[in-house]
Structure formats: structure tokens, C-alpha cells
Amino acid sequence: MVGGFPTFRASAPLTQMVGLSPFGLLINLAGTWMGKGFNLVSVPLSPQSRGSNPRAPTFAPKISATREVLVITPLGSPVPNRGFVEDDIFLFGLTYLQVVNDVSTLEARHFETGLWLNIPDTSPPTVARQAVIPHGDSLLARGTVTESDGSPQIPAVSTRPIDISTQQPINDVQFLAPFKALTLPPEIPPGSIDDPNEVLRKVIQSQTISRTTTIDVSASQDDIVNLPFIRNNANVVSLKATFWIESVLLDNGMEFSQLQYSQIVMLRFDGLDWPHISVATLLSQ
In this structure, what is the dihedral angle of CA atoms 248, 252, 253, 259, given to the nearest 10 degrees? Predict the structure, then answer.
């Protein structure tokens, strides 16, 4: 026995040895997920690219319809955390690999590896997400996981930058003109530039969803490590993400699993915090 759990060969599936309960509701993430989404990000423009025009925009918003593959696999053994002021705990979790490409050009949009961890004996149940991104960022996000009947209530999110000194969104029409110049991809519904979560709501508006597992995690600046170049040019200062795992009922009485998520990463430059928002709807394969 190891920490109260049976010993096993490294090649044996852990879920067969200890069951699903040590993974908590996170076990609903396990599997291969594929689907489409939408990505919006504002990037800083260097002085060279702005030229000599003092009124030139200091940023450029970019949008794309995306397609995604997300593979999530349970870890092969419990992870012991040794206690000193507290008793030892054993973590159960899942590894993941996320690959996101532009629908039209197939250009890479995002690549991420990491872990989801179930934290034992917490009420409400708490989880952690560890992520590594090739831009030179890594983070630890923590939060809760809950389960409820019916469809999720997906809130609106704003793409407007926030003034760091006042913590108020920028509403100046002339400053925000580059957003108005954007043209949505044909498969993305109107209104998604102002509120990307409209992409998610559009998918589920005609679906019958019997049950939803909701995972909410967030990371502050203290939880994020960035390369010096990132810190100097477009520092990543926070992350907030919600994942909805939905059981969707078909007219014939069968059902399938659907994963939706909305993620906001704040990039800090030019005295503002700029929302980088990614949303997607993925189906279990």
C-alpha cells in the first residue's frame, strides 16, 4: 500500500486500481475533445511599426475562428505531497495537451501543456490547473468545480481594455476604432467582437442539456511567471477561465458530452489591461 492506495505496476490504469472518485468531478474532463471556437487578442505595436504619426494606434486587435484538439489523460499514479504542519495528502490529476489552429489558414494559434489536479478533502471541491505556454509563460490557477442540472448560464464578457489607474474600461470611440474595423469570420455570430461568449451561447440555445459540470479557475499576477521580454512588452497579469462539461440530450433519447470554455487572459501594456479572450465548443470523440 502507498499512502492508503494499493500498489500497482506503472503500466496499469490507475482508474482501474482505485476507481474514479479520487479524481473528483475532474474525471469528466478525461478524453479527446475536438471542435471549433473564436479567439480575440490585442497586440502592442512597436514604435517602428507606428511610424512618426503621433495619432497612430498603439495596438492592433486580431481575431480568428479556430479549430482545436484537446487531449486529457488521467495520471498513472497518485502524487504524494508530504506534510509538516498538516498531514500528507495524495493528489490525483490529469495531464492535457491543447492545440489550436486558425480555421482558414491552419496557422498555429495556441499550444499548451499542463495538469489538472483534484485537491482532496476540500469543501466545496477545489482544483488546480498548471499550464505551460511556449511564449514563455507558466501559471498555477486554482478554483472550484460544481455540478448542476440543466444548461449553464454563460455570462457576457467584455473585450474593452481597462485603465490600470482607474480600473475603468476605455469607452473612447476614436481610440477603439481598430475594433470597429474588424470583420468577423462567416461562421462567427454577430456581436462576438464585443462579447465573444456569444459564440458559446449560440451553440447551446437550441440544445437540451440535462447536466453541467462547471470548473472555475483563476490566477493572479503572483501565480504567473513570464519571460523578461513578456514582462517588458505585454505582461500577462491574470487569467480567469470557466469550463462547462455538458450532457446534451438528442431527440432519440441518446446523449453526448460537450465541453465549452471561456478564458480571459489580461495583457498589460500602454497603461492598460487588454483582454485576450478564447472560447470554444468541443465534442468528446
Answer: -10
* HSE toward the beta carbon, residue 86, CA cutoff 13 A: 6
- Residue 6 belongs to some domain of the structure: no
Query: What does the alpha-carbon distance between residue 273 and residue 3 come to, in Å, rounded to a whole number?
Result: 45
How far lies 38's CA from each of 67, 177, 249, 278, 279, in Å? 8, 21, 25, 6, 5
Outline where 80-226 has alpha helix (H).
Answer: 177-180, 198-204
| 1 occurs within a structural domain | no
Q: How many domains is the chain built from? A: 1
**CA end-to-end distance (rounded Å), the chain:** 35
* DSSP labels, 180-198: HT----TTSPTTTTT-TTH
**Three-class SS state of 27:** helix
> For the whole model, what pTM was predicted?
0.90
Q: How many residues does the chain have?
A: 285
81: pLDDT strictly greater than 70: yes
Distance CA 100, CA 95 (A): 17
Burial of 87 (0-12, 13-18, 19+ CB in 10 A): exposed
CATH of the domain at 100: 2.40.128.20
Place of cell 490585442: 42
More confident residue, 8 or 178: 178
Digit-coded pLDDT (tens) for 10-61: 444 555 544 558 999 999 999 999 999 999 999 999 887 776 676 778 899 9
Does residue 11 lie within any of the structural domains? no
pLDDT digits (tens, 9 = 90+) for 139-174: 999 999 999 999 999 999 999 999 999 999 999 999
Q: Nearest 5°: CA angle at 187, between 283 and 35? A: 15
What pLDDT is recorded for position 101?
Answer: 97
**Does 48 map to a domain?**
yes
